[in-house]
Specification:
This protein is 57% helix and 12% strand. It is of the alpha/beta class and 215 residues long. The protein has two domains: 8-92, Rossmann fold; 96-214, N-(1-d-carboxylethyl)-l-norvaline Dehydrogenase, domain 2. Residues 93-210 form the 3-hydroxyisobutyrate dehydrogenase-like NAD-binding domain.
């Protein structure tokens, strides 16, 4: 959409125009885009989204933005229509980095939940009881309980595609490599999600990671 045939850069001039990138990309790619867009006189904002398809329909996403502050302000009416909160994080790349960090926490948590449910089942414990107990502990979160129920019921309708989570984990690992930050749990979790993709669950919900843990 930016560098390809008939992309944004084919416009003779971007004076008075702004481009908002709302897909998950790495910080380096975002820097390449801002250089190209600003080189033609345009403004650029990276806007990473935290949330699911259901949250998008409800307008309760979390939006992480970085780049041109004036463009961020100009887009507030659009952001408010789809999100309950939008955060301006400063320099280009910061939104991509923050999104990667949050996806690390989310992905590792889901893999841990899947393994816990699989272990409970193998030990002859009720998975429903496990979720009931979990809901009363400090570890509880609406997201984990929702995904836990989906795992128990084998309900993998796509709210957040598994392949998107795996892509974000890969981006996080790339960031870790660039910063020489060890991410052993993220690396293992990424392999778990990759295996679930190979089993044919790439376009199912992230809860389908349970298939990998269970079998």
């Amino acid at each position: 959409m930016v560098f390809g045939n008939c992309g944004v850069l084919h416009c003779p001039s971007l004076e008075g125009k702004g481009y908002v990138e709302m897909t998950s990309i790495d910080a380096d790619t975002s820097h390449d885009i801002v250089e190209a867009v600003s080189g033609k006189g345009g403004r650029y904002l990276e806007a990473q989204i935290q949330g699911s398809k259901t949250q998008a329909e409800e307008g309760t996403l979390i939006l992480l933005a970085a780049g041109d502050r004036s463009l961020f302000d100009d887009c507030q009416s659009c952001f408010k229509a789809m999100s309950k909160n939008s955060f301006y994080l400063g320099d280009i790349g910061n939104a991509s980095k923050m999104n990667a960090v949050l996806q690390v926490v989310g992905g590792v948590s889901l893999a841990a939940l899947a393994e816990g449910l699989a272990l409970a089942d193998r030990a002859g414990l009720s998975q429903a009881d496990l979720l009931d107990v979990l809901a009363l502990t400090p570890l509880a979160s609406p997201h984990l309980i929702l995904k836990g129920r989906a795992m128990i019921e084998s309900s993998y309708s796509t709210h957040q595609p598994l392949t998107h989570m795996q892509k974000d984990l890969k981006l996080a690992l790339g960031l870790g490599d660039a910063l020489e930050q060890s991410l052993p749990l993220t690396a293992t979790t990424n392999e778990i999600f990759k295996h679930a993709k190979r089993l044919g669950y790439a376009n199912h919900d992230v809860a389908a990671v349970y298939i990998r843990a269970r079998f």
